[in-house]
Structures are given as structure tokens and as C-alpha cells.
Amino acid sequence: MQQTEANHNPSSRYLGGAFAFLFDDKGRFLLLGERPDTRKYMWDLPGGTLTDEEPPVEALHREVFEETGLRLRLLSPLCWLKWDRHRSGAPILVAFYVAHVVAPDDVRLSEEHTEYRWVTMEEFEYERLAVSAEEEIVRECFALYRQCQCTDR
């Protein structure tokens, strides 16, 4: 999977989105349980839709804080994907990022989600968790996170 620069706003032909693989100090990433009445998947990543002219990184910080009350430290962009999954029916161009949570013990969920869970790659694979990101992206994310951890020290 090719890593691309993810700092510009996507084309106006698409809605824009930004989501984080948000890791804690134990190398686990955060999953948010979707409400049953709006559920497409059992679990979702923190993030959401960009507002008009909002850069993806700015949207990511805003969405993560709105959904979880958490602050993040961005480690790296991961990839861009085009989804046909937005509830409006419009295609959405999504930027995925790898990030580290600043204070993982203080999760405050918004009304959009019912629960949260920190999971390892092993738990993700073993339980076959249904998440909004494809498994290949999750694997790439863990590899990039490990690489960022090695160069961070």
C-alpha cells in the first residue's frame, strides 16, 4: 500500500473524511461501538467528515475530541481511500492517520457511540472484529505504528 501525503483537502467531487488509528501506551488502538440505530459496522475508528474547506488534520483533531474527549499526537499519514459508504449516498475520500493518544484514561463518548475498546492486533484478528477499515489497512497501520515507535526513541 502506497503511503501518500494527507494534508490537503480532497476534490469537491467527494465528501472528505479523516480517521485515526489512535494508539495508547500499550500499543493498542481505540475502537468505538456504533449506536445500533446508525450501525453499519459493530466498531468504528475515531474520526469523521470534514467541514467545508477544513484540512483533514484539523478535522481529525476536532472529530476525535468531539467523539472521545481525547487529544492526539499525530505520528504519520497512512493512506487515502475512496469509499461509497457515506450515509448521504455521496462518495467520500477518507484520509487515515496513525496517532498516539495524549491521555488514554479519560475517554468521554459522544452520543454517536455506545462503548469503546482498546484492542491489540492479535485481539482484532482473533475476534474478527467488524470495523469500518479493511483488514489490510489495519495491518499496514500496525506496521507503520511499530516503525514510528522505533524512530521515536
Automatic annotation (TrEMBL):
Alphabetic keyword roster: Hydrolase
Organism per entry: Actinocrinis puniceicyclus
Domain annotation Nudix hydrolase: ranges: 13-143
Entries under PROSITE patterns matching the protein: NUDIX, NUDIX_BOX
Pfam families for this protein: NUDIX
Annotated family: Belongs to the Nudix hydrolase family.
GO molecular function: hydrolase activity
Protein name in UniProt: NUDIX hydrolase
